[in-house]
Each structure stands twice: as C-alpha cells, then as structure tokens.
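In this section we walk through a basic example: taking a raw amino acid sequence and producing a predicted 3D structure, encoded as discrete structure tokens. The instruction is simple. Fold the sequence below.
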Amino acid sequence: MFRKMRRHKQELSKEECMEILTNEPRGVLALLGDDDYPYALPMSHVYVDGKIYFHGAMEGHKNDAVKRCDKVSYCVMDKGFRKDGDWWYTFKSVIVFGKIRILTDKDEKIDKLTYLGDKFFPTHEETVSEINRMLDRTEVFEITIEHMSGKLVREK
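The resulting token sequence is shown next.
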C-alpha cells in the first residue's frame, strides 16, 4: 500500500526515525481540507508509545478536516548541519502516514497533555496549571502510525 523509498541508500532506520520524532518539537501536519485541497499546518507534537499527539482548539479548519477524513501525513525535520565552506545543509526528515482521531476520554487527554506540556513548558507545575486552565477548551489529537519512513537529505 505504501511506496518504498526510491533512494534506499539514504533511508533512516526505524530507531533514527523514532529519535527524530521524540527529540524534534515541530512538524507539518497534512490533512484533506476544504474542497479537497491539501491543508498543511505547522504543529508542535510529542511522540509517546509509538503515537504522535498534538493539541489545538475545539473548532476550526483542522477539526473539520479531521472529522471529514482521518488519513493524514506528518513531516518532521531535524535542524541539520552545514560543513564549513559548503553552501548546502545535510538533514534528516521523517514522514509518517496514519490515522488521526480526537481523544474523548478526559483522563487520556490529561495524560497526553501532560506529555506535551512537559516537553515545552519549563516546569511540570506550569504544565499542570495550563492543563487545569485550558482542558475544557482544548482538543487532543492522536496519530496512529501506519507507515513511517526517514531520509538523510543532502541539498547539493
């Protein structure tokens, strides 16, 4: 069902892909948007137990797209590097294909929001405070990964 990578010599291992998903804070979520146009948006994420989680508002283009079609892709790149004297960057990227859903169980939402908050807020106390303040106005989205591939990219 999913294509094999054409440039297989540049393919990353599953472990390298998981490391990028774990360590990098952001990626681009691609959904099927209004009038079947692609809708891609930057998101902050957390990778936990083999799944990817985001948070967001309870209404809007993203929510409408998720409710209409649960198939998504998500792309994450590391910061890359450039050797002295070179104009190009070398970086690693991961593309995930999967199914997205909105979490409805309150305890599950709190659990995943805690992971998200602890990744981005300076302290756990700030995470807890923000969850208490925003829980009833926040959606939590979960991607179950069906296929994942990663690639070492040299821009030259």
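Looking at the output, two observations stand out. The CA atoms of residues 32 and 59 lie 16 Å apart. Strands lie at 26-32, 38-44, 46-48, 51-56, 71-77, 90-102, 139-154. In the next section we compare this with other chains.
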